Amino acid sequence: MSPRMSARAYSLARPVAKRVIPPRWRGPLRGRLGVPGSDVVEPAPPDPQVEARARISSRYGLEPETLDGALLHDVEIEAIIAAVQARPGGSFLVFGCGNDSRLWERVNTAGRTVFLEHHPQWAGDVAASIQSEVILVSYWTQRAQWADLLDQPERLVMDLPPSVRDHQWDVVFVDGPTGFDDSTPGRMQSIFEASRLVSAGGMVFVHDCERPVEAAYSTVYLGSDRRSISVWGHALLNGYSF
Ligand SMILES: C[S@@+](CC[C@H](N)C(=O)[O-])C[C@H]1O[C@@H](n2cnc3c(N)ncnc32)[C@H](O)[C@@H]1O
After folding, report:
1. Which domains are delineated in the chain?
2. Is the C-beta atom of 96 inside 6 A of ligand 1?
């Protein structure tokens, strides 16, 4: 049998419980405690991320499902969309494929979007799900080498096809390759190449700039004086204006 709460205990406990108990646990707990109104189902509170994504899709004319699955936070997504759409018909180069690849393609339908991906199977999977070009690239680095390579730009050059190398890109987004531990390639080469591939008047975005490698390579090769955007979402996204 569930214990019954006195009205006095309930009125004292309610404001505290509303602050600390997640909404989905409140109904079951009320039932267990015999709280008055335990059969009332509370409406789920609005999810700020869902609301933000609805606002972004409406503001930029995107179908809401285009943003489904993207791992970036809405403030990060919006900063990049704004830069791409401020350059209508422009070119957009993305280092790294992800659940957001379809979004980047859709944001730049009037222009040219190209993805560079090092993971063969993932490159194939994403290429099959979008219209834009996905180019398989290799990185010879391991993140563990980042400090040694920082002042050796000649060792950061990538082997890129002429369709990428001979173009000046309006927006470049560095969200790859993987750089979460020392055995991954790290983003030393992609950040270095972004600095060479961006057009005059263009922008480079680098995700995960709270990490030492992204922070150091962005400072050296993109330049803190060019940093014009810095937003914290799930991670730190910096934007550099050229
Ligand atoms: C940091 S993730 C980018 C995630 C992206 N922002 C998103 O919203 O999904 C970049 C790299 O992780 C790897 N990656 C991302 N998603 C993957 C998946 N589902 N399977 C395999 N590799 C993946 C790819 O090699 C890619 O270059």
Report:
1. 1-45 (no CATH), 49-241 (3.40.50.150)
2. yes
What is the pLDDT, as a whole number, of residue 64? 85
Atom of ligand 1 nearest to the CA of 100: 8
Which residue blocks in 98-205 are alpha helix, DSSP H? 101-107, 120-129, 146-149, 162-165, 188-197
Please tell me the distance from the alpha carbon of residue 118 to that of residue 116, in angstroms, as a whole number: 7
Dump pLDDT digits (tens) for 28-38.
566 666 655 55
Digit-coded pLDDT (tens) for 167-225: 999 999 999 999 999 999 999 999 999 999 999 999 999 999 999 999 999 999 999 99
Number of alpha carbons in the 13 Å side-chain half-sphere of residue 156: 24
Query: What does the alpha-carbon distance between residue 178 and residue 202 come to, in Å, rounded to a whole number?
Result: 24
Amino acid in position 7: A
Mutate to test the pocket of ligand 1, among 175, 181, 183, 189 (most ligand atoms within 8 A of CB): 175
Protein residue whose Cα sits closest to atom 21 of ligand 1: 122
Provide the whole-model pTM: 0.83
Strand, helix or coil for residue 112: strand
